[in-house]
Amino acid sequence: MKKVLITTASFLLIAAAGAQADGHIEAGAEIFENICSECHYEDDFSGESADDIAAMVKAVVAGETEHDEDLSSLSADDIANISAYFASQ
């Protein structure tokens, strides 16, 4: 019984960590509304993976890609959230 409880608890911790790492769609929606919606549509990046979207946003934040809006204030969590949001569209 103890082994089953430890295995279940481990699985739940790993699943929770994975969900956090992937970002939160609701928080990403808020970032979209506050920063991105003036120039982008919700489906501008449809079909792109969250990892690809994160890479694009990171390139903008780093100044490697030209962008009209300054995104330098976005944190790693913000990038994960906005990536999760766009990937969900």
| CATH architecture tag | Orthogonal Bundle
Helix content: 55-70%
Can you count the helices? 4
Give the low-confidence spans: 7-21
Name the helix and strand elements from N-terminus to C-terminus, one letter apiece.
Answer: HHHH
CATH class: Mainly Alpha
Cα-to-Cα separation, first versus last residue:
42 Å
Helix/sheet category: mainly alpha
Rg calculated over all Cα atoms: 16 Å
Major β-sheet profile: none
Instruction: Give the number of domains.
Output: 1
Q: Which overall shape is indicated by the principal axes computed on the Cα atoms?
A: globular
Counting DSSP E segments of at least 2 residues, the number of strands comes to 0
The CATH topology is what? Cytochrome Bc1 Complex, Chain D, domain 2
Strand content: under 5%
Averaged pLDDT: 82
Describe the secondary structure blueprint for this structure:
Layout: H1 2-22, H2 25-36, H3 50-61, H4 76-87
Helix pairs in contact: 2-4, 3-4
Short description:
The protein is mostly helical. Helix content is 64%, strand content 0%.
Structure description:
By secondary structure, this protein is an all-alpha fold. It has one domain: Cytochrome Bc1 Complex, Chain D, domain 2 (Orthogonal Bundle), CATH 1.10.760. The protein is 64% helix and 0% strand. The chain contains four helices and no strands. α2 packs across α4 and α3 packs across α4. The radius of gyration is 16 Å and the shape is globular.
